[in-house]
Amino acid sequence: MRRALALAATLSLIAGAASAETWTKFHTLENGADVSYDSDYTYKDKATGRLVVMQALSKGTLGPSAPGKADSVGSVAAYDCAKKNVIPMANYRPNQGLDIKATWRSDTPKKADGADNAALLAAVCPHADHVPVK
After folding, report:
1. d(CA 52, CA 88)
2. Which partner from 33, 37, 67, 117 sits 20 to 30 angstroms from 78, CA to CA?
């Protein structure tokens, strides 16, 4: 009986880890697509202090999903909440894994313009002190 309980507990931990995407909608684009961020992926970059956020699009019954899945469309970017600028790190689309370039930290930041960036900054920046540092 103990082995069965231990096995059940182990399997539930594995299943929980496999579905660790926690998407939070923060904006709707003009074309009706929702934009969400994955709070399980969000972290503060130790080297730059920037907030790294994975975001994805969804429309109707599609997504959002993480990189490599059949319904995945999104990006990862590093935001400076104080200066309101962003360094794009990578984009992904269906059946394409995430490929973050190693030199992103040396890229020139761009102003985080647009309603979607404003909404994302408003959603994630208040929690910047509570995310993991990596």
Report:
1. 10
2. 33
C-alpha pair distances (Å), 73 with each of 19, 30, 35, 44, 76: 18, 17, 10, 23, 11
Quote the tokens at residue 72: 């995945």
CB 87 within 8 A of CB 78: yes
76, 18, 62, 29 alpha-carbon torsion, rounded to 10°: -30
In order of 71, 84, 103, 104, 114, the CA distances from 108 in angstroms are 31, 13, 11, 9, 18
Model pTM score: 0.80
CB 2 within 8 A of CB 8: no
**Best mean pLDDT range from 13-17, 28-32, 114-118:** 114-118
**Could you tell me which of 89, 35, 90 has the C-alpha nearest to residue 57?**
35
